[in-house]
Amino acid sequence: MTIVVFMLLYSNLSFAQHNETTVNKTIQKKWILETIKDLKKKDSLQFLELTEPKIISNPDNNRISYRIIKKGRIQCSGEDWIYITMHSMHENKEIGDVCIGISNNGETFVNYSHVCGGIVHFIDKSVTIPEDANDFFNRFISDANEQKWVKWE
């Protein structure tokens, strides 16, 4: 009985934390701009460890998934690669959950998916590695809430 009560209290607390609307769009935008600026200065991003895809291919469930923990680099089937970093609302609720993806060509996208414990899975229902950065940003969504990538202007 005690365990059940604890689990209910914990699940309600966790649900409440992720549904608070404390994101300050001005502070979030500032964090995004500063992070993009810092990332574009680094020429070592291409040497960071690769995040390997997990491919599931069976009659009921075809998909490819990239599990990003805090940050990661995805290699496309061509020469393009993508560096992804993130912020979790648990670190600062005013910034909220946000992922930034930047290609080797400097194209930048954001994704406002739920970041759970510093982890996000980006999935697609195919079993093919993205051809290039645009293919990744157009096809892959977060598994938690199916958020799409948005080009950062």
Structural class, from secondary structure content?
A: alpha+beta
Question: What is the 3D shape?
Answer: globular
Give me the strand/helix succession.
Answer: HHEEEEEEEHEE
Low-confidence stretches: 4-17
Question: Strand order, biggest sheet?
Answer: 3-4-5-6-9
Overall number of strands: 9
Radius of gyration: 17 Å
For the largest beta-sheet, the strand count, sense and barrel status come to: 5 strands, antiparallel
Overall pLDDT metric:
87
Number of helical regions? 3
Characterise the protein shown here.
The protein is α+β, with helices and mostly antiparallel strands. The chain has helices at 2-19, 25-41, 133-139, and strands spanning 54-56, 63-69, 71-75, 81-87, 98-103, 108-111, 119-124, 141-142, 150-151. A hairpin with a 6-residue loop joins strand 1 and strand 2 (63-69). Residues 4-17 have low confidence and may be disordered.
